[in-house]
Write a structure and sequence with these properties.
This protein is an alpha/beta fold and 408 residues long. It contains 13 helices and 13 strands. The strands form three sheets. Strands 2-8-7-6-5-3-4 form a seven-stranded mixed beta sheet, with helices on both faces. It has a four-stranded antiparallel beta sheet with strand order 9-10-13-12. A two-stranded parallel sheet has the order 1-11.
């Protein structure tokens, strides 16, 4: 009598071999565990506004539910949502898109993912301006593409240098992905700073551009926002302009992002989405319409609050021995250097030999969670999110200063 066959062990797809769970999520998980243990951890790692979704947006969702708007919509966004997005692009960005040149998905992240899945083949390259949001590289890899990192130096404001971009382009380059203002550095581009990059792309017609504008409304010191397809209309036919309601309107959980681009690309992205999520939540679409077409005063008020927080964080960090912090133009992150702390010892005798070690020290011994710059492609730095209250920020900064003083 033969023995029953043992169950087969799990075999993950090869494409996941170089991809792990986000380090940001890991840090968040440790922080939450310490909180459950009673530790007073302050988490400065999340890319999520602490403000609430505006009331008129909530009411629009309630009305949609009561009106029975709980069914499927067009797979990449209802016509009403696409009309609201088109009007937003015209009003704020001087960009004209028809309905079939607009897509909406479950967050800007899905829009970018759809674009890569619709366009990348094995060996195709995507240029990423490092430091960059960690998900960019993993999305490229999942789509069988190859990330090509180009380092953006702090002395250039963490912005991509046109000459470096020119050298990075190869016959296999399919996309440049540019995020302004940037996660994690907060760096943003003026017209004069963006123009040389667009001039490079004009010389390489096989390279397309993804402009990730998700932090558009979080830009400070009266700096005008500029997006690529508006600045250089000749590139509009090979540019995907990506945005969403998550950051500006504090709607991260509603999961609505959108993009405008060439209709052939939008149609291909719709094929991808049709076999994954289909349409974004119908109720969330109703909320997004209200956000895009309703009162915009909240954007001004919240931008001012974030700018005050930015200044508090930057000014305080720059008073700490061993830490230096550039003042970012936008988003809600600072990207501070901890190079001056490398080689110092903790009270327990451990050596701070990397930004990762410094961030672990802050979390485990001083109850502050920040993210090491090595996660984003440039060390030794740490990203601090100031999307939390000034009270939390002041306490966290006090702890960081104390932690650094205790190093020898």
């Amino acid at each position: 009598m033969t023995a029953p066959a043992s169950p087969a062990s799990f075999r993950p797809a090869k494409r996941l071999g170089a991809i792990g769970v986000s380090e940001i999520l890991k840090i968040g998980a440790v922080a939450q565990r310490l909180k459950r243990e009673g530790r007073p951890v302050i988490v400065l790692g999340a890319g999520e506004p602490d403000f609430d979704t505006p009331d008129h947006v909530k009411y629009a969702a309630e009305r949609a539910i009561r009106a029975g708007q709980t069914k499927y919509t067009i797979l990449d966004g209802s016509m009403e949502l696409k009309a609201a997005i088109a009007e937003k692009f015209r009003r704020e960005n001087r960009l004209d898109y028809a309905a079939d040149e607009i897509t909406a998905g479950a967050g800007a992240k899905q829009v970018i993912h759809n674009a890569f899945m619709a366009t990348l083949s094995p060996g195709d390259e995507v240029i990423l301006a490092a430091p960059y949001w960690t998900s960019y590289a993993d999305m490229v890899k999942i789509a069988d593409g190859t990330p090509a990192d180009v380092l953006c130096h702090e002395d250039n404001g963490f912005r991509l240098d046109a000459d470096d971009l020119e050298r990075a382009i190869t016959p296999r380059t399919r996309w440049l992905l540019l995020n302004s203002p940037s996660n994690p550095t907060g760096a943003a581009y003026s017209e004069a700073q963006l123009r040389p990059i667009l001039d490079v792309l004009k010389r390489h017609p096989h390279v397309w551009l993804i402009a990730d504008d998700i932090y558009e409304h979080l830009i400070y010191d009266d700096m005008p926002f500029v997006t690529a397809a508006a600045l250089e209309p000749s590139l509009k036919s090979r540019t995907l302009t990506v945005n969403g309601v998550s950051k500006a309107y504090a709607m991260t959980g509603w999961r609505v992002g959108y993009g405008g681009g060439p209709r052939e690309l939008i149609a291909a992205m719709a094929v991808v989405q049709s076999q994954s999520t289909t349409n974004p939540s119908s109720v969330s679409q109703a909320a997004a319409i209200a956000a895009l077409t309703g009162p915009q005063d909240v954007l001004i008020e919240r931008r001012a609050a974030f700018q005050r927080r930015r200044d508090l964080v930057v000014d305080t960090l720059n008073r700490i021995d061993g830490v230096s912090c550039r003042r970012p133009e936008g988003a809600f992150y600072t990207y501070a250097s901890c190079a001056g702390l490398i080689g110092r010892r903790t009270a327990a005798g451990s050596i701070i030999d990397s930004d990762g070690a410094f961030c672990r020290y802050l979390l485990e011994h001083h109850d502050v969670a920040v993210v090491p710059g090595s996660c984003f492609g440039l060390a030794p730095h740490f990203r601090l999110s100031y999307a939390t209250s000034e009270q939390n920020l002041r306490e966290a900064l006090k702890r960081i200063a104390k932690a650094c003083r205790e190093l020898s």
